[in-house]
Design a protein that fits this description.
With 440 residues, the protein is of the alpha/beta class. 34% of the residues lie in helices and 20% in strands. The protein contains 14 helices and 18 strands. It is globular and about 65 Å long.
Length: 440
């Protein structure tokens, strides 16, 4: 199984793997040894689509050079381009969209019997989360609390791919997290297209704070992390929950995309520049040690140099500990793809690179305050080259953020929590040493 794209895709992959293991399939880490190869694709932006196609073609070679009898392609790309892909990739034996995962064992039975499959059922349905086979390290797991999206940002095809927003029942999430904790998971990472909207479709109001309160009581869990928090739904009550609940990481992932009012309006975003600035000011004013992450789009149609310069100034005046910038990608079927004032691709890329250069300087400035501070760190492994252990603090999310590298004279095992006194930084990464001092 090859899983591409975001953590939400990763959870889908884990569900499929779990169902296949239950059906008697064994999982191989070597595609050359596999009878069946599955590529779970991403179709969010152009670069992701190209990576998916390249991976499919790479895996197709194992039908000639390995023992692969069946090549199956699943995920967002197939949901979006099912019929076109089936015609353009005859070397692929089957294609499934995002609603077909619960039938994966039946689909493979049909494929192994020689049938070509192009879609299966396609009606939205709940994933059987209890079947998951984790692909993350044993101490960390992603937990999907909702599926789909209704935000309809003008540049995004996710609502057309994943369907409308649908929250999972709180009791289902609680049961899954209890099970994960009993299996040794210490950190759960809550994900959805918009986690802050969780529960609106169930109770007519957001329930994320209530869910966090319930999860905080689960024995065995150490960290509860939340990703994809939309700025318009980060309320004082939600911030209070982050601060009040000891297991909830004070880490806010807030995708704002831009700071110019006209650009935000063209993006169909629901916040104004004034609201974004007020939110960030309010978060920092609490002095609660929040680490902030955001994502930005450079070169949106109509973006002038003046508007881009304002964005550059903004991320210096309102610094984020973590920031990802993307060059605008015009996606078929989205309103933004039809907007006038297209910014040349080279300019989009140059602006994206400029944002990341500014962010590197911002991080260097923030990291100057690190020496002497003590953080609790989740150990992830040992780096042979540097002779240092590495892991993450509560201020760093798995896979997307930097690491903490530290010395530990008595050693540390993956999954261990240790206190680390920071001594400096190396680029984005933090440097430190194990200590007995209390953490922040």
């Amino acid at each position: 199984m090859v899983s591409l794209g975001c953590p939400k895709n990763r959870v889908d992959t884990e569900v499929m793997l779990g169902l296949l293991i239950q059906a008697g399939y064994a999982v191989s880490g070597n595609p050359g040894e596999a009878d069946v190869i599955i590529v779970n694709t991403c179709g969010f932006i152009e670069a992701a689509k190209q990576e998916s196609i390249d991976t499919i073609l790479e895996m197709a070679q194992y039908k000639q050079n390995g023992r692969c009898a069946v090549l199956l392609v699943t995920g967002c790309l197939t949901q979006r381009y099912l019929n076109a892909l089936s015609q353009e990739l005859p070397e692929v034996d089957g294609f499934l969209g995002v609603n077909d995962y619960p039938y994966i064992a039946e689909v493979l039975d049909a494929l192994m019997a020689g049938r070509r499959v192009v879609g299966w059922d396609q009606r939205p349905c709940d994933l059987p989360m209890r079947s998951r086979a984790l692909t993350t390290p044993f101490y960390t797991a992603y937990v999907k609390i909702a599926e789909g999206c209704d935000n309809r940002c003008s540049y995004c095809a996710i609502p057309d791919i994943r369907g409308p927003f649908r929250s999972r029942a709180p009791e289902d999430i609680m049961e899954e997290c209890r099970s994960l904790a009993s299996d040794g998971v210490r950190e759960v990472v809550l994900i959805a297209q918009d986690t802050t909207r969780y529960g609106e479709d169930l109770a007519g109001k957001p329930l994320l704070a209530d869910l966090l309160t319930a999860l905080n009581a689960i024995e065995g869990l150490k960290w509860i992390r939340v990703l994809y928090c939309y700025p318009e739904r980060i309320t004082a009550a939600l911030l209070d929950a982050f601060i009040r609940l000891p297991k909830v990481c004070r880490y806010l992932d807030i995708p704002i995309q831009h700071i110019d009012g006209n650009i935000l309006k063209a993006m169909h975003r629901r916040t104004t520049p004034e609201q974004i600035r007020a939110l960030l000011t309010g978060i920092r004013a609490r002095n609660a040690g929040f680490a902030l992450r955001t994502s930005l789009i450079a070169g949106f149609p109509g973006e002038t140099q003046e508007q881009f310069d304002a964005l550059c100034t903004f991320i210096q005046d309102y610094p984020f500990e973590h920031l990802g910038a993307f060059a605008f990608s015009p996606e078929e079927g989205t309103p933004a793809a039809k907007l006038s004032g297209a910014v040349p691709k080279r300019t989009r890329e140059r602006r994206r690179n400029k944002l990341m250069q500014i962010q590197a300087a911002v991080v260097q400035r923030l990291n100057a305050d690190l020496p002497g501070r003590v953080y609790e760190v989740l150990t992830e492994g040992y780096d042979e080259e540097s002779g240092l252990y590495f892991g993450r603090s509560a201020a760093q999310a798995p896979e997307i953020d930097e690491k903490v590298f530290f010395s530990a004279p008595n050693g540390a095992e993956p999954g261990d929590f240790v206190r680390v006194r920071m001594t400096g930084s190396d680029g984005y990464d933090w440097l430190g040493e194990v200590t007995n001092e209390p953490s922040e």
